[in-house]
Amino acid sequence: MNRCSLFGSLILLALSSTSAFAQNSLGDLLDGGAKKLSKDAVKSTLGGAHVSGKSSASSADTEYDYKPDGYFSGNLKAADGSWTGVVGTWTVDESGKWCSEWTLTMNGRRFNGCGFLYAKGDDLYYVESDSDKSAKIYKRVVKK
């Protein structure tokens, strides 16, 4: 093999190796062996847990405490860097879809959203779709 083809092969290998480790979409997660959590697994994972990560709506940092009774509270980092309180409710349907409704305590604005939790090893990810392989994923850190 000449130097040019060896160099080209090394570049191709590096590019394919990098993309294999990138976890940016549901398709990446599924290709990496991630599994969608069932209704019971979502409820047991969230109930009584402190969950942090990036908001799918605004990419703001979030920290929420989920109670087993379907309520949660916590904080969301605003665009100006300040934190605002959040209170809300959460449910999980038979398909494992996790839905939340919440209110910002500083101005009373209400929001809602739904998605799914996927596990890959010890890592958890939130994604708004369980069928759109291009759907963006958001890592969640769960502590009990």
Provide the descriptors you would attach to this structure in a database record.
144 residues, alpha+beta, Lipocalin, eight-stranded antiparallel β-barrel, 3 helices
Task: Provide structural commentary.
This protein has 144 residues and is an alpha+beta fold. The protein has one domain (22-143): Beta Barrel (Lipocalin), CATH 2.40.128. It has three helices and nine strands. The protein has helices at residues 3-21, 26-31, 39-46; strands at 35-36, 49-54, 61-66, 71-77, 83-92, 98-104, 110-120, 123-127, 137-143. The chain is globular, with a radius of gyration of 19 Å.
Task: Give a nutshell description of this structure.
This protein is α+β, with helices and mostly antiparallel strands.
Mind sketching the topology for me?
Blueprint: H1 3-21, H2 26-31, E1 35-36, H3 39-46, E2 49-54, E3 61-66, E4 71-77, E5 83-92, E6 98-104, E7 110-120, E8 123-127, E9 137-143
Number of domains: 1
Q: The CATH topology, please? A: Lipocalin
Strand count: 9
| Count of alpha/pi helices | 3
Residue-averaged pLDDT:
86
Cα separation of the termini: 55 Å
Strand percentage lies at 35-45%
- Main beta sheet, described? 8 strands, antiparallel, barrel
Approximate shape? globular
Q: For the record, what CATH class applies?
A: Mainly Beta
